[in-house]
Design goal:
This protein has a single domain, classed as 3-Layer(aba) Sandwich (Protein Transport Mog1p, Chain A), CATH 3.40.1000. 37% of the residues lie in helices and 29% in strands. The chain is an alpha+beta fold. It is flat. Strands 3-4-5-9-8-7-6 form a 7-stranded antiparallel beta sheet, with helices on both faces. A 3-stranded antiparallel beta sheet has the order 1-2-10, with no helix packed on it.
Length: 184
C-alpha cells in the first residue's frame, strides 16, 4: 500500500514538474515545429513575410492576416514589454498613399494625447512602408504604467503592421519589414 502511494505521489510530482517545464517552453517548441513545417517565411495575402528563428507565426486559416510572436519571453514587472508581437493584415481598400495615412494617423494620435511620435520610412524591394512609433500605452493610458513600445506601419502594398513590445523587438521588427517581398 505504501509503495503504491509513494509511486502515485512521485508520478504526480513528475507530471506536475513536466507540465510547468512545458508551459514555460511551449512557445519555443511551437516556434521550432512551425519553422520545421513552414521554413522562415509566412504568407500574408500576396506577400512573403520573414519569420526569425525564435518567432512563431499564427494565422488560423486566414491568409490575409498573421500574428508573429517572439518566443523569448522575459519575466519583468512590466507584462506588456515582456514579449514582442506583430499583427500583420491586408487592408483591402487602402489607396496606397502612405503619406496621407501617416499624416492622418499622427493627427489622430496627437489629438488623443500622444506626446512623442517617432516617424520612420522603410523602403523594401517592392514597396514603401511608413511607420509611427512611441509609447502609446504610457501616453494614452498612463494607469497601465508600462514601457512597451507600439509601432504602427502601413505599406503602399496595403499591408498594415502593428508591433507591440520592447526596444530590442522593435529593431527586429524593422528588420522583418525590410525583408517583406511580394510573391511573384
Amino acid at each position: 500500500m505504501k509503495r503504491k502511494l509513494l509511486l502515485a505521489v512521485v508520478s504526480l510530482l513528475v507530471l506536475t514538474a513536466g507540465y510547468f517545464i512545458y508551459a514555460g517552453t511551449r512557445l519555443r517548441v511551437a516556434a521550432i515545429i512551425w519553422h520545421w513545417r513552414h521554413g522562415n517565411v509566412v504568407r500574408v495575402a500576396d506577400y512573403d513575410v520573414p519569420v526569425p528563428d525564435r518567432w512563431v507565426a499564427m494565422n488560423h486559416g486566414d491568409e490575409n492576416t498573421s500574428l508573429l510572436i517572439d518566443t523569448r519571453v522575459e519575466k519583468t514587472k512590466d507584462p506588456l514589454s515582456n514579449s514582442n508581437y506583430i499583427d500583420i493584415s491586408l487592408i483591402p481598400h487602402f489607396p496606397g498613399d502612405v503619406d496621407l495615412w501617416r499624416s492622418s494617423r499622427e493627427q489622430w494620435l496627437r489629438g488623443r494625447g500622444m506626446k512623442a511620435i517617432e516617424e520612420n520610412q522603410i523602403q523594401t524591394v517592392d514597396q514603401t512602408v511608413a511607420c509611427l512609433s512611441g509609447n502609446v500605452f504610457q501616453d494614452l493610458y498612463p494607469v497601465l504604467n508600462t514601457n512597451a513600445i507600439t509601432v504602427e506601419c502601413m505599406s503602399t502594398g496595403r499591408l498594415s503592421l502593428i508591433f507591440t513590445g520592447n526596444q530590442v523587438g522593435r529593431q527586429e521588427f524593422y528588420t522583418i519589414i525590410s525583408g517583406i517581398r511580394k510573391r511573384k
